[in-house]
Amino acid sequence: MIDSDFQLNRVVALDRATAALQQDTCPVEVAAQILGQKWTLQIVYSLLRGEAKRFCELQDALGGVNPSTLSSRLKMLEEVGMVQRLQISAIPPHVEYNLTEMGSQLGDVIDEIARWSTQWLCRAATLDRPVREDA
Known about the structure:
With 135 residues, this protein is mostly helical. The protein is built from seven helices and three strands, in the order αααβααββαα. It has one domain: Orthogonal Bundle (Arc Repressor Mutant, subunit A). Strands 1-3-2 form a three-stranded antiparallel β-sheet. β2 (83-88) and β3 form a beta hairpin.
């Protein structure tokens, strides 16, 4: 069940996106305002495997993300409706994150970004590396 705060935050975020679109703002620009923030795509990519993850599991999977940055990105993704935050009443209590339907729909987009990056960037980075003489 989605709580009222989550629903309200999602409405506010979607209202902002709608307002931006009504001002003839490019839809890519609206998406880039969210997805272009550092670590955001990596967070979504990490959650795409389907199982909910705890904060520390996400932090380990991302390797190198500052905890406050991870926290703010998760909160932003929750506010726009891409991530759901679940409070688990276990001992000890903890929080888990997973993608909503909206967030899961980014899977195909991220797969295409990965394919493009592999074809054009990863290959180029490998080719640009100097070859060691002793290799």
